[in-house]
UniProtKB/TrEMBL annotation:
Taxonomic source organism: Halobacillus salinus
Keyword list, A-Z: ATP-binding, Nucleotide-binding
Listed Pfam families: ABC_tran
Matching InterPro entries: ABC_transporter-like_ATP-bd (IPR003439), Cytidylate_Kinase-2 (IPR052922), P-loop_NTPase (IPR027417)
PANTHER family according to UniProt: DNA TOPOLOGY MODULATION PROTEIN FLAR-RELATED PROTEIN, YALI0E33011P
Keyword Nucleotide-binding: yes
Record's protein name: ATP-binding cassette domain-containing protein
One Gene Ontology term of the molecular function aspect: ATP hydrolysis activity
Domain ABC transporter: 3-83
Cited Gene3D superfamilies: P-loop containing nucleotide triphosphate hydrolases
Length: 172
C-alpha cells in the first residue's frame, strides 16, 4: 500500500503516518525530512532536484510507503501520482490550533521530540500558518487534489481517521 497524507499544521499527519506505518510495517517518510537535510551543524534546505531524487530513491527501495507532510508542491507530485490513497486531513481550525499549542507545551516539557527547537516564535509561526491555510491554502489544495479525486480521502475528525484506519484493516 502506498499512502500520501497531507494537511495543515496540527492536523495529525505525523500521528496518522506513524500509526499506519507501525501497523503495516512499511516505510514512513516525513516530507519535512525530505525538504531539509538534518545535520549537526544546522539543517540545510535541499534543492528541488535533490528532493525529487530523494523521493524516487525511496520509492524504488520500498514497495510500500507512507508519505506525510504539509507540502503540496511540484517536487512531491510524484508521490501523489504513485499513491494508492491520498489522505487529506482537515480538522477544524480551533482543534488544529489546540494541537499546535499542546505540541509546543509537550516539547518544552521534554515529552515530545521535534526536528526544530521549540520557541515562542515557532509557535507563533505555526498558528499563523494555520490561519494562512484556512484563508488561502485550502482552496489551492482542493483545486490541486481534484486531479486525484478517485483516491482522495478527506477526513475532518478523529472519528473519520479511526474509520479510515478500520477500513484499511477490513478485507476487500
Amino acid at each position: 500500500m502506498k499512502i500520501h497524507i497531507l494537511g495543515p499544521v496540527g492536523s495529525g499527519k505525523t500521528t496518522l503516518g506513524r500509526t499506519l506505518s507501525k501497523r503495516s510495517k512499511c516505510c514512513h517518510i516525513e516530507l519535512d525530512n525530505v525538504m531539509w537535510e538534518r545535520r549537526k551543524d544546522g539543517d540545510r534546505r535541499r534543492s528541488e532536484s535533490e528532493r525529487v531524487e530523494y523521493l524516487i530513491q525511496t520509492f524504488q527501495q520500498y514497495p510500500s510507503w507512507i508519505v506525510e507532510g504539509v507540502h503540496l508542491n511540484d517536487w512531491m507530485k510524484g508521490s501523489l501520482e504513485r499513491a494508492d490513497h491520498i489522505v487529506w486531513l482537515e480538522p477544524p481550525l480551533a482543534f488544529r490550533i489546540y494541537r499546535v499549542i499542546r505540541r509546543y507545551l509537550r516539547q518544552l516539557l521534554g515529552r515530545e521530540s521535534s526536528n526544530y527547537r521549540p520557541s515562542l516564535r515557532m509557535l507563533r509561526d505555526m498558528i499563523r500558518w494555520s490561519f494562512t491555510y484556512q484563508n488561502e491554502e485550502r482552496h489551492r489544495f482542493h483545486q490541486e487534489l481534484q486531479a486525484y479525486e478517485d483516491k482522495v480521502y478527506k477526513l475532518h475528525s478523529d472519528k473519520d481517521v479511526h474509520h479510515y484506519i478500520s477500513e484499511l484493516r477490513s478485507p476487500g
